[in-house]
Fold:
Amino acid sequence: MSEQPQPPEAAKSEAEALRHAYEVSRFVQDRSREIRGAKASADIVRAFAEAARELVGSGGTQFYLRDAAGGSMVLHKTTGDTTIRRLGASPWRPPKDMLEWIAKERRPATVPGDSERDWHTLVPLVVAGEVSGILVLDLPQGAGEIAQQTVEALSFLAEEAAAAILAAEERARLDDELGRIDMERSFLANILDSITNGILVVDLDGRILQINRNAAAMLDIPSLDVLGQPFEPLVSEHVRVELRAIFDETLQAGFAMERLVTTRLGGTEFPIAVGSSLLRDDALQAFGCILVFRDMTASREMDRLRKLDQMKSDFVANVSHELRTPLTSIKAYCEALAGMPRTPKEMEFLQVIDEEGDRLIELIEDLLDVSRIQSGTLRLNLEAGNPGELVREVLAMPKLHSDQHRIHANIPADLPEMVFDWNRMKEVLINLVSNAVKYSPEGGEIAVTLSVAEGNLRIAVEDHGIGISAADQASLFQQFFRVDGSLTAKVAGTGLGLAITKGIAEAHGGTVTVRSEPGKGSVFTVILPVRKEVPRVEAGTAQPKFG
Amino acid sequence: MSTPAAPGADRLKRVVDRIQGLPTLPAMLSSINRLMANPRTSAKEIAQLISSDPAITSKVLRVVNSSFYGFPNRISTVTHAIVILGFNTIRSVVLSTSIFDALRKTAPAQGFDRTAFWRHSIGVGSLSRVVARHLGFTSLEEFFIAGLLHDIGKVALDSYLPEEFAKVVARVREADVTMLEAEEAVLGVTHADVGGWLLQKWSLSQALVDAVARHHNPSLAGENMKTAAVVHLSDLIARALQIGSGGDRRMPPLSDEGWSALGVSTEAFPALLAEGAEEAERAMVFLEFAR
Structure:
C-alpha cells in the first residue's frame, strides 16, 4: 500500500472503497453467522446459495463428497436454480481431473465451464488436512468482471458453508453411531437381564461396573442403580465373606473354583453356585472381576428326582423278589394237591390257580428284567448257537399256536453259528411272535424271516394286523407303554414286553426297529451283530452288559 | 518498518552501503499492488495491466500452464489465469519472474554455481508452499516467494561484493564450515541479513522480509516466526533431498523452537517429503527465467 499523500480524488475513491469493503464485510459476517447457525446440511447449502445469489446473482450449487472408500468425488446434492443456462442445456458438472486438481490445491478456485460466460467456483472442504468434499457454485457472469473482493467473500462463505456442512454430516454420522451404540448397549443389557444367571462385574477395588437383574435379586440388592459403588456393603455379612474370598482368589489365581454359597431371601435359604473370572481389557490387563451366580435350586430338584427314580427301581426289584418266593410255594402246593385224588371240579380249580400263578411269575420276571435293564445289570449268558434252530424251537411252542394264523419261518440254510443268550433271545422271539398273533385279530399270515447282511443278523417278524400309528411308534419301546384303542384294551399285556425286547437286543449290541402302517400290519426287526466269540470282559464297566 | 538484526545493524549498514546500483523491480509490480489494494478491482483490470508487457505476459502464461500449477485444462488468457489461480498467485508469478529478470543481469563470481543456487531456491520455494499447505495456510504464494528469495542475499553479495564473497566461498570449501559461519567470519554479516535488507529496499511485505532475514533463526522473526520457520524447515528439507545447492555442503542446525512452532507431526513427515520432492521438481519451470 502506498504511503505517499493522496490527491483528493484518489482519497475520495479510497474512502468509497473502504465504505464498500465495510459493507461487504458486514454482509459476509451476517451470512456466515446464518450459515453456521443452520443445522442440517440442506439448510446450510440453501443459506450459502442465497448469500451467493446476493453477491453474484447465482443460485446453483453442487456438493461433492469423497466416497466412503476414499476414492473419487461423488455428487452428493445439488441446489438452486440453473436458469442462467441456455434452455435445454444440461448442467455443467466439473470433470474428475478438475475436482482432483482442487482437492490437491486445497484452496478455492474459479474455473471455466462450457463457455466464456460459464464459470464455477470450486471450494474444497478440508478436514484434518484431507479434502473430503468440494462445493461448486455456479457463477452467472463472465468471471473476469468479478471483483477480487467478491471472490474472496464467496470463498470465505463457501469455506464457512463447507465447514458447517462437514460438521452437520459429522453430527449426523455421530447421531447414527450413537443410535447404533445405544442399540448395541440395549441388546447387551437385554442379554444380561434375560440370562438366568446372575452377573456381577466389579473393578479391582470391588466397585460395581455392571450388575444384572438376577444378580441383584440373588444378592438381595434392592436397586440396579449401584454402579460405581463398592459391592461389599450391599450384601449380607455371610455372602460378603464368601464373595470377598472368591474375589481375592480370582485376583490372585486368575479364576476361582465354583463354590456353593447360601443366600437368604425373605426367610428362605437359596443355594447359589458362584463362579468367577478375571476381566481383562484389550491389552489383556486385568481391570476387574466377573462373578457369575447360578441358582442351584433347580439343579437340586433334578438330583432329588434322580434319587427318587433310583429308589423306585430298587423297590420294584426288591418287591419282585419278595413276591416270587411265596408264589413258588403256592405253585408247589398246587402241584402237591393235584397229585392227590381230586374231584374233577377240584382239579379244574387247581388248574386255574396254577395258571394264574404262572402268569404272576411271568409278570414278576418281566418286572425284574426291566429293572435289570434300567440299572444296567442285565447279565447275558453267551453261548454259541444257531439262530435258525432258536426260531424253530420258538415256533414249535404250543402257546404260540393259533387256529386263525399261519406262522412260517424263512430260514436260510447257511446261517452262521454265533454267540448269544439263548434264553433271552428266545424271550425276544416269543414277545415279537405273540405280539404279532395278538394284534392281528383277523388272523392271517405271520412271517419270521432270518437273514445275514453286512455282518449283522436280521430277524424280521411281519404280521398283517392292525398296525401302529407313527405317533405311537415313537413310544412303543418305553416300559409300561400300551397303544390306546378299543382293540388293545381287550388284549392282555403289561406294556413291558417291547421294553424288555429292546433291552435284550441292546445288551447284545443290537437294536430293534419297527416299520408299520395302521390297518396294514407291522414288521419288527431285531438286528444283532454276528459274533463268533464271547467278548472278553473289559476292565471296569466299559461293557457291563456282556458280563 | 523495523530493521532486522538490531545488534548487527551497524555492521550490516557498513556492508550494504558498499552495494551500489542494485537492480530495481519493474513498475508493473507496484501498479499491481496498487490495483489489488482496491478490493473492487476485477480480474480483467489486472489482466489488462499485465498484458501491456508482452514479455511478462508470455512468462506468466508459461508458468500458469506448467505442471507446477497442474491445472487440467489449458489457460489461454491472463484473465483466466487470474480467475483460476487467484489474484495472489498471479502477483507472485509476476514478482518472481521480475526478480529473476533483475538478478539475471549480474555477473556470477568464481566458485559459486548460480544454476545449482537457483535450483535450491526454487526447491525451497515450492517446499515452503507444500509445508504451508500442509499446515493449513492459505497465502501459499507468499511462502513460495519467501522460499524462493531466502538466499537472495548470497546473490547480492556475489554480485556486488565479489571479492569478499569469493573469500567466503573459499572458506566454506577449505574450512568445512557452513556459509553462514564463513560469512560471519569474513564479513561480519550473513546472507540472511543482506537478503532481508534487499527485500525491504524492494518494498516487499514485512512477512517476506522477516522470513528471509530469519530463515536460519526463526525464533527471532517475531510475529512472522511461523513463516520464517516454514522457510527454515524447507531449506533443511531441500538440502536433505539434495535439491540444488546453497553453496555449502554442511547442514545448518535445525531450530528446535521453529520446529515445535510448526507442529509438523512426525507421522505426516514422510508423505510431506514425497509430496515436496515431487512438487519441487515441477517448480523447476522457473529455472528457465533465471538463465
Remarks:
- The radius of gyration of chain B is 18 Å.
- The CA atoms of residues 131 and 269 of chain B lie 10 Å apart.
- Chain B has two domains: 23-105, 106-291.
- Confidence is low (pLDDT under 50) at residues 1-6 of chain B.
